[in-house]
Amino acid sequence: MNAQDLYQKWVNQPTLNESVKHDLAKIANNNEEINDAFGTNMSFGTAGMRGLIGAGINRMNIYTVRQATEGLASYMDTLDEEAKKRGVAISFDSRYHSKEFAYEAARVLGQHNIKSYVFDDIRPTPELSFAIRHLHTFAGVMITASHNPMQYNGYKIYGQDGGQMPPKASDMITDYVRKADDVFAIDVADVKDLRDRNLLSVVGEDVDDAYLANVKTVNVNHDLIREVGKELKFVYTPLHGTGKIICRRALDNVGFKNYSLVKEQAIADPEFPTVDFPNPEFPEAFNYAIKLGKEENADVLIATDPDADRLGAAVRQPDGSYELMTGNQIASVLLDYILTAKKNANDLPADGTVVKSIVSTELATKIANNYDVEMQNVLTGFKYIAEKIKDFEENKDHTFLFGFEESFGYLIKPFVRDKDAIQSTVLLAEVAAYYKQKGQTLYDGLQSIYKKYGYHEEKTISKTFSGIEGKEKMANIMNELRSNPLNEFNNQKVESLEDFQTSTKTNADGSTETIELPEANVLKYWLDDGTWFAIRPSGTEPKIKFYLGTVDDSAEAVNNKLKTYEDAVDQLIEQLV
Asked: Which of 256, 347, 440, 462 sits a CA distance of 20 to 30 A from 394?
């Protein structure tokens, strides 16, 4: 059935949802939109699905949400009754249709006699991860598009440990999703009936209290907060998202009272009216916070994305301006503080371990090594950090101390198994108080770390290759680099090449080592001046990402060096395309 026929099938449905009916009418005379919405199924992968809100099999709507949940329910039907009784925790963010989608998921699960625990209002993704563990459910569903623009929504599935579903289960769910190809044939139960049969429970404050009690354990030095917390002045913005209540309560609970809220962005508005992209990685997301920060002479600005799993920050400079910190910089100051504080308190475990992604800063590795703490690297995706934590607990051979990705995601305590911006906020505020007590700012603290370990700078460069031809170009780039590996780059010799697709590290002398990680289409080069760069095609977007990391003796030197590598990446792409 082609796109036009499918479109007509949807139009002819007698009991069509009114919102979807409205969306169908909007694209009635737009063949390009119809082809995009009905020409292919929405991609459903290990992390669930994410896409534009609207009518069609390639859009987020109640029917594709039902289809995704039918896949989860069909998988759970293959398990024992105990798993079904444990049920599924469901949360949602502030986007259009998020609450509606959450209840549609509960209706599908209920039709399979699977219990669901649905939050009474918007909650952060990390709290959903916590709720799975707290309520002992078998799985979790989070309705969110994270930091995407307002036109998007998404659906994420979590496993019983609070991390994303493991590959075997995820693959089975994906197969069941594909089998449920007639979205109008999926039966759903009535919400009132589910409530009467105790197959749907509404949760909220009970889980909040338990989660916030755990968040309170994240802070290392409560005496410091009592002494300096009232002097530290900072600004917080939830960027119209789920952090607006939980994060403020977390800050209040640990003793931070002297902060200001960006009121314009504290409204949980699905339009995200003050930002084009509600992403704390982007400078524009801080425009309102900077204005308020200057008015109040704030030491630091903190922003969490709409589902409160990512955190960004900006620090005041001597001239009163604010400089945004990168995800790697935030992770480095958090890690340095954690290890310093634990060592000073004689609380640093002998088997302490930090986990980061392979494209995150090596500054963190140097910090960890300085404290005789092991650094373990994993593939990009926080699920791999969650898997490590699970392994640590089962084998009892490592104590998890910190995990992070360069893309502004951090985890301090493993009562959550995903990025947690609420934990990160309360700890970053403590770190800022620590430097405040010394008459310094977070920026000063970062400079002292650089002076000790070398000035590190990293940059991610995304190159877009659209359409079918774009996919071929990206494949050709990776194939060419594998067929003809670089021996030097930017006039620097290659010391080693890690190919995560073949699980092989090849050294300059020709010797090889096995990489003990899952296969992934990633290449990472290590150069003799201490620079590394990695190349990774996106699995969901028509992009190849080039990750650069370099080090030198001064800020000026490292920035100049990084610029030469950026130019070298551009030249490499020109040669390969």
From this structure: 347
Catalytic residue list: 146
Full 3-state SS string of 510-521: CCEEECCCCCCC
Q: What's the per-residue H, E or C state across 59-77?
A: CECHHHHHHHHHHHHHHHH
Tracing tokens 């992934």 back to the chain, one arrives at 520
CA atoms within 13 Å, Cβ hemisphere of 135: 32
Q: What is the CA radius of gyration of the chain?
A: 24
Q: Which residues of the chain have pLDDT under 50?
A: none
Between the CA of residue 255 and those of 107, 228, 251, 458, what are the distances in Å? 41, 10, 6, 34
Handedness of CA 290, 292, 298, 302 (dihedral sign): negative
* Stretch (H or E) spanning 37: helix 31-38
Helix residue ranges, H only, 229-326: 243-254, 287-296
> pTM for this one?
0.95
Q: Are 243 and 285 in contact (CB under 8 A)?
A: no
Which residues, other chains included, contact 245 with Cβ-Cβ below 8 Å and sequence gap of 6+? none
What's the pLDDT tens digit per position in 272-294? 999 999 999 999 999 999 999 99
How far apart CA 296 and CA 288 sit, in angstroms, is 13
Structure tokens of 553?
A: 């003796």
Rama region for 454: left / alpha / beta (φ>0; ψ in -120 to 50; rest): left
